[in-house]
Design goal:
single chain; alpha/beta; Rossmann fold; binds pantoate
């Protein structure tokens, strides 16, 4: 596997050969990322993973500084997973001049849920993803569904800007106890780690109650009770919310609430100093 740190080296490496498949990451890789690489390999083109901790998508007081930088181990894992090239730029390569042009994602989607809790987050995500797509010019790029809203926004950006890339979304990879794999799981103390599957359990319980619910008017109470349950177990929830899969808006009427297989429940909550997110389609 080639490891490249500069844009020039990347351009030279990509000058000939087929368009690759890109797996963008912020590093500190786990089995979820390696599943993205495995999916990328199935697409039959050379696989490029990027590792770049993107300052633009972190808000003030978030974990940009302490986000784990584990490039050597990441490179070993990628090599074992059959990745062909690792692009690991530093900030000077990625943002040689301050990034003053930013993508402004549709606020109807980017201002909800994660966007409401982390203002500016999706502007940072879409800006760096657009830049990575420009640098790598992949035929396809693979993202995980754990970051459900991120995946939707990237699909929407690609569609709106007519970017010549196919976006693949892959199911969330979970630990045996149901916890969604995340680089941030490493922040959890052993006691918190034992408790962490409660977020997924809360989403399952909320989805089950929403399934039984026949009137939309009952949904806010059910969601508030789900948040309250988590709070009682020591979490600080940002949101637990039932949304339409298609646009992440709340279901519009009773009929929509009752229709099968088009809703998703999304949640974000803090356990100690660690903020976890997860979701469940139902
Ligand atoms: O999902 C992530 O790891 C990041 O948001 C991404 C897509 C690599 C952009 O920095």
């Amino acid at each position: 596997m080639q490891i490249l740190h500069s844009r020039d080296a990347l351009h030279a490496a990509l000058a000939s050969g087929p368009h690759p498949v890109l797996v963008p990451t912020m590093g500190n890789l786990h089995a979820g990322h390696l599943a993205l690489v495995a999916r990328a390999r199935e697409l039959g083109a050379p696989v490029i993973a990027s590792v770049f901790v993107n300052r633009l998508q972190f808000g003030p007081g978030e974990d940009f500084e302490r986000y784990p930088r584990t490039l050597q181990r990441d490179a070993e894992l990628l090599e074992q997973a059959g990745c062909d090239l690792l692009f690991a730029p530093d900030e000077a390569q990625m943002y040689p001049t301050p990034q003053t042009f930013h993508v402004r994602p549709d606020p109807r989607l980017a201002g909800e849920l994660e966007g409401a809790s982390r203002p500016g987050h999706f502007e940072g995500v879409t800006t760096v993803v657009l830049k990575l797509l420009q640098l790598v010019r992949p035929a396809a790029a693979v993202f995980g569904k754990k970051d459900y809203q991120q995946l939707m926004l990237i699909r929407a950006m690609v569609e709106q800007f007519a970017l010549p890339v196919r976006i693949e979304g892959l199911e969330t990879v979970r630990e045996r106890d149901g916890l969604a794999m995340s680089s941030r799981n490493g922040y959890l103390s052993p006691a918190e780690r034992a408790q962490a599957p409660q977020l997924q359990q809360a989403l399952r319980a909320l989805a089950a109650r929403a399934r039984e619910c026949t009137e939309l008017g009952q949904l806010p109470r059910i969601q508030a009770e789900a948040e309250q349950d988590l709070r009682a177990r020591g979490w600080e929830p940002d949101y637990l919310s039932v949304r339409r899969r298609a646009d992440l808006q709340a279901p519009a009427d009773d009929e929509e609430l009752r229709r099968d297989a088009h809703l998703v429940v999304l949640g974000a909550a803090r356990l100690g100093r660690t903020r976890l997110i997860d979701n469940l389609e139902f």
